[in-house]
Amino acid sequence: MAEKVDASVVDALTIGNVKTVGEAASFAMASLFQHQVNHARRLDSVAEAHLGKVLNNFASVDPAEAVATAKLFKGEADSGISSLLAQLASGQIGAKVAQSTPGDISVEISKLGASVSSLQGLIGGLVAALQQAMKGAKTTPPNTAV
Question: What pTM, to 2 d.p., does this model score?
C-alpha cells in the first residue's frame, strides 16, 4: 500500500518544480541575449576591418588619378542616366497619351537630371577631399626633438 506523503513535502516539491520551469524561460532568454550580443560584436569587428580597408584604398589613390576616374565616371554616368531618363520619359508620355491625360514631364526629368549631376559633383568633391585628407595623414610628423 502506498503511504501518504506529508503535505509540506508535496508543497516543497511543487514549489521547486514551478521555480525550475519559471527559471527555464529566463535562462533561455538570457542565453539568446548573450548570443545576440556576441553576434553584434563579431559584426562590429568585420565592419571595422572593412572600413579600415576602404580608408586604406582611399589613401593609396593618387589625387590626379582620382580626379581622372571621377571625370570618366561622371561622363559615363551622365550619358547613361540621360539615356534612361529619356526612355522613362517616352514611356510615361506614351502612357499618359494612351490614358487621354497628356502631360509634360520633361521639366521634372530635367530637374532630376540636374539633381543627379549636382550629386555626382558633390560625391566627386567628397572623394577628392577624403583622399587629400588621407594623403595629409600619411605625412611624417615634424621633428619635435630639442
Answer: 0.33
At CA 12, angle to CA 9 and CA 14, rounded to 5? 110
Task: List Cβ neighbours of 106 (8 Å cut-off, separation of 6 or more).
Answer: 89
CA Rg, the chain, in Å? 33
What are the grid coordinates assigned to 94, written together? 506614351
Residue of higher predicted confidence among 51 and 102? 51
Which class for 131: exposed (0-12), middle (13-18), buried (19 or more C-beta within 10 A)? buried
d(CA 106, CA 136): 45
- The residues, ordered by sequence, that sit 6+ positions from 121 with a Cβ below 8 Å of its Cβ are 74
